Amino acid sequence: MIITAGLDVGSTYTKAVIQAEDGEILGKAYGPTGFRLREVARSMYDEALEDAGLHEKDIDYLIATGSGRHQVDFKDLHVTDLTASARGACFLFPDTRTILDIGGQTMKASRVDKSAQVQSFRLNDKCAAGTGAFLEKTARYMGYSTQEIGALMTISKDPVPISGVCAVFAESEVINHLSIGTSPADIMQGAIESLTGRSVQLMKRVRAEPEYTLIGGILRFETMGRSVSEVLDAEVNVPDGEMVQYVSALGCAILARRRLDRLRSEGNLEAAVSA
User: Fold this and answer.
1) Which of 68, 138, 162, 213 is such that its CA lies 20 to 30 A from the CA of 195?
2) Pick the residue with more confidence: 192 or 115?
3) Is residue 258 domain-resident?
4) pTM score, two decimals?
C-alpha cells in the first residue's frame, strides 16, 4: 500500500497529514510555527507519524506547502498554497468551484475548475485587518484568549461595526468601543463581520461561483462560516471540526499520491519510492 504525507508550514501554524492510498487519513498533527521552521516541520511530521503508528521509512512520498515550504529539507517536492488547498478542498467537496482560505496572516480566494485546477486567485492586502491575526489581537486586547473567541461571539446581541481598512485604525475603533462600554462580545462579532465583508469582496474579485468551500483556522469559529453564507446568500461548505485547518496539508498528501501514480504509469515508481 502506498502511503503519502502532506506538510503545510504556514505563517501561524504548521500542519501534517499522513494518508493511505485509499484516501483514509492515518495520522495528523499541528502546532504553532514560530521562527524555527525546519524544527517545527520535523516535529509536526514526527507527531503525525506517531499518530498514524508509522515510521518515516513507511512514507513513500512527501509534499510540502505553505510560506515555509522551502525550509522543509526532507520533502520530495513542494507546491504552492493555492494548488494544495484546491486539491484538498475538492477532495472533501468534489463540486467546489470557489475556495476562501482565511489563515492567521493571509486571506486567499480562488476559483477552480472541475479538475481542481486554479483558474483565478486573489490575496488580501498586506494588512492584519484582513486576516485571523486581527481577530486574535482584538481578543487579546480585551483580555481574552484565542480559545475564548468562539464562545464570546455566541453571546453577542448587538454587534458594532469595525470599519477600519487598516489593523491600526481598526484597533483604534476597538479601543473607542471599549471606552464607551460596548460589550466585548459585540466588538468581537463586529470584527468577524468586518472580516466577512473583506472576504466576500475578495471572492467577488475572482468571479466566485458555487459551490463555495471555506477553509483555514478562522473557520473553526462557526460564526465566520454563517456570516459568509448570509452575505453570499448561499450555502457554503466548511470541513468538519479541526479538519478545516488541515485542508492544504491534505491536498499535499493527495498530490503526492497522484505524483506516484504518474511515476508508476511511467514505470518509475521504484525509483521514486526509494528516492
Assistant:
1) 68
2) 115
3) yes
4) 0.86
